[in-house]
Specification:
mainly alpha; globular; single chain
């Protein structure tokens, strides 16, 4: 890496590792994604990006576990032995899953296992937190987010070229869709309550002041989330509605989260850089969730 790039990252190995992992998955997965897009028609060209959008954040978060374990080790429940083993082990597993999904190799298993991992995160880390503080909106947001990540993994496993068939496919599809719908509805309502929050996954951070029509973007995102949730519940036009929403969130990733990421990387201190990368990757991950939902819908 050039001295200019190192100066930009301010010598942060964590930020460098996360960005390199994401870029590597882009380079590895761009050929399969390009072929899928070329073979698709209409809105399905957007749906064809589901695996790549889902895989990149897996590698980014895997690299966080390996190069910045201090940021995630406290999430490991204290009753579990060998806490650092789990940090590094999960990091390797996330990167391996990202490679699998980006290349389309063994997605049947990687999607299934990522889904199980995300559901375990919810059960072991976040549910106990919300039991202690049931009014913690941020924790509920994270529960919905992680559940949707897991549900999308199962949808990708169910729709893979050599994925599950018969009853196994139906079960994965049903559970996957059920895990995603609460996030769509909850996030949709949150966007109407807080329209200037960064779009997609409504966490604490607000859209920068330079973003034009901030409230309008929030309302459009909220309406799209609610419409997609309703389309799943009603069983009507889910593929079309979810494809449009997934494309919209991808657009916000490029036009809003991209500049936010660049600004965060230029700030001193690793925590600010990691936060910027996390926001970018989280929302890209969620766009992959929505596109996986479209992919699994008729």
């Amino acid at each position: 890496m050039s001295s200019t790039a190192l100066a930009f990252f301010n010598g942060s190995p964590t930020a460098i590792g996360m960005c390199v992992a994401g870029i590597a998955i882009v380079l590895i997965g761009v050929v399969p994604a390009t072929r899928a897009v070329a073979a698709a028609r209409g809105l399905d060209k957007i749906v064809a990006l589901s695996c790549l959008a889902y895989a990149i954040p897996l590698a980014v978060f895997g690299a966080l576990h390996l190069f910045g374990p201090q940021f995630v080790r406290d999430l490991v429940p204290r009753y579990m032995p060998w806490r650092m083993f789990w940090v590094y082990g999960i990091g390797c597993a996330l990167i391996a899953a990202g490679l699998s999904i980006a290349t389309g190799v063994a997605v049947r298993w990687s999607g299934l296992l990522v889904g199980i991992l995300m559901f375990l995160f919810v059960a072991m880390i976040y549910i106990p937190g919300v039991v202690r503080r049931p009014d913690a909106t941020l924790t509920w947001t994270i529960i919905c987010r992680e559940s949707s990540f897991g549900g999308a993994g199962w949808l990708l496993a169910a729709t893979a070229m050599y994925g599950w068939r018969g009853q196994g496919q139906r079960l994965l599809t049903a559970v996957g869709r059920t895990a995603i719908v609460p996030a769509l509805l909850f996030f949709g309502v949150r966007h109407f309550m807080h329209p200037t929050a960064l779009p997609g996954v409504p966490l604490a951070r607000q859209m920068p002041m330079w973003v034009p029509w901030r409230e309008m973007i929030g309302y459009i995102t909220g309406a799209g989330l609610l419409a997609t949730g309703a389309s799943v519940l009603l069983g009507r036009n889910t593929r079309t509605v979810a494809a449009c929403l997934g494309g919209w969130i991808l657009l916000t990733v490029v036009l809003i989260y991209g500049p936010v990421l660049i600004g965060a990387l230029s700030e001193p201190g690793t925590p600010a850089k990691v936060e910027g990368i996390n926001y970018f990757a989280d929302t890209l991950f969620f766009s992959g969730v929505i596109l996986a939902l479209a992919r699994a819908s008729d």
